[in-house]
Amino acid sequence: MTVVYVIVVSMLVAAGALTLVRLFRGPDTLDRIAALDVFVVLIVGAGAVYVAFYQDVSNVALLVAFSLVAFVGSATAARLAAHRERHR
Amino acid sequence: MTFLDVVSAVLLLAGAAQGLLGALGLVVLPSLLSRLQAATKPQTLGLLLILAGAALRVPFESAVTLLLVAVFQLITAPVIAQIVARSVYRSGAVRPEVLVVDELAQRLERSDDER
Amino acid sequence: MSDAHSGTLRSATRLLSVAWLAVVWVLLWGSFTLLTIVGGVLVGFVVTALFRAGPVAHRLPFRPVALLALLWHLACDLVVSSFDVSRQTLRYGWRARGAILEVPLLSTSDRVVALIASAYTLSPGTLVLQIDLQRSLWYIYILGPRDSADIEAARTAAMEIQRSVLAAVGAPEEIAQARRMMMGRP
Predict the structure, then answer these.
(1) Can you tell me the distance from the alpha carbon of B53 to that of A3, in angstroms, rounded to the nearest whole number?
(2) Inter-chain residue contact C28 with A60, CB threshold 8 Å
(3) What domains can be seen in chain C, in order of their start residue?
(4) Given CB atoms, is C33 within the 8 Å cutoff of chain B?
(5) What does the pLDDT read at residue B96?
(6) Taking CB atoms and an 8 Å cutoff, what residues of chain B touch A75?
(7) Average pLDDT taken over every residue of chain B
């Protein structure tokens, strides 16, 4: 069973690394915002994998809070970028 | 190892695979609009599968909270994609050479002629 | 619409939002005790009192079968579209193509348009780019079409989604409007 979790976590880490590539390469601000949003989703996913592996539910509320804060953050950043494009 | 554990393992694996494919799409696809597709769909499905896999292994109360995370993700993912997509056209990140047709550009040209 | 009628309509809408907020509250606590349920209802009342929703123009329809059909449709779409986007990534990668299409919009109601746009963004390889309410057109981006047959298929699918959203949540006036808008077009 542990093998499954090792595979799952390595896939998520690889996904995170690829997302970071897009985050650093850009080329657009909007690209980076999309990449950051994906990165946060991957972190929430990794948190859920942690919950499943240790069957430790003390962090579940944290996942809810994190996903909501992430949404507000991404939406604000995207709106700011959109606003800037309009006034260019 | 129970039956539920196996189902959970399969869901987690499928979810992580979708997340990885989505991240791959984010890197290799040619334009911002196509990358947004990779960022929204495989990622959403991947997170839902992972959450389902985790929900099977925890007590009912916590599984319900995980369900709440899934609902939030389903509501919020299209919103972000739409805010970004709306400003893509203005930002000039469309890259017309990777489009088969662009009827919005045709419309914009026509309305320029009318003026 | 008489005042008494719109009054009951508003309180019915408010009760619905209170119920929804209470459900979220109970889910957040993750326990089904009297305390969390009563607390959730109280929180719902406080929140709806603080943030008053805009007036609802007409009675919202409730069609469970059509709504379930829409949700099922969206769930299938999400799975299919994920695999579709992954396939495009693996097969074409850097050489993947897209298209921007102009599609007639079947409604001018904000609520329906917002729902259509969200539903459409979750469906296979597609995204809403821009909505032109004055001309009743919307512009969509599709990942993956390679020839005109693919493009026509995508157009048909976009109309199909609008119809199922309207069937699930459209008020009778909005459905009638959609039918009128369809008449004027080939």
Answers:
(1) 16
(2) no
(3) 3-50 (no CATH), 64-183 (3.30.70)
(4) no
(5) 66
(6) 76, 79-80, 83
(7) 79
pLDDT(C58) > 60: no
Inspect the interface and report whether the beta carbons of C28 and A61 lie closer than 8 Å. yes
Q: Do B17 and A71 touch (CB under 8 A)?
A: no
In chain A, what percentage of residues exceed pLDDT 90? 8
Residues of A in contact with B12 (CB under 8 A): 4-5, 8, 49, 52
- Rounded to whole angstroms, how far apart are CA atoms C158 and C120? 7
Asked if C128 lies within 8 A of B25 by C-beta distance, the reply is: no
Measure the CA angle with vertex C61, ends C58 and C67; round to 5°: 145
pLDDT at A13: 92
**Could you report the predicted ipTM of this complex, rounded to two decimals?**
0.83
Q: Which of B85-89, C2-6, C103-107 is least confident?
A: C2-6
C28 to chain A: closest CA residue: A61
User: Of the given ranges (A34-48, A66-80, C62-76), which has the lowest mean pLDDT?
Assistant: C62-76
Cβ atoms of C111 and B85 within 8 Å: the answer is: no
Please report, for chain A, the start and end positions of each structural domain, with discontinuous segments joined by +.
Answer: 2-86
Size of interface A-C (CB pairs under 8 A): 4
Nearest residue to A23 (alpha-carbon basis) of A33, A14, A15: A33
Instruction: Enumerate chain A positions whose Cβ falls within 8 A of a Cβ in C.
Output: 60-61, 64
Count how many domains chain B has.
1
List, in order, residues 6 or more apart from A83 with CB less than 8 Å away: none
CA nearest to B99, candidates C87, C90, C132, C129: C129
For residue A14, the distance in angstroms to the closest alpha carbon of chain B comes to 7
Q: For chain A, say whether B82 makes contact (Cβ under 8 Å).
A: no
Q: Which two tokens stand for residue A10?
A: 């390595």
B68, containing H or E segment: helix B60-91
Domain that holds residue B53: 3-114
Span C87-99, pLDDT tens digits: 877 877 777 777 7
This prediction has a pTM of: 0.79
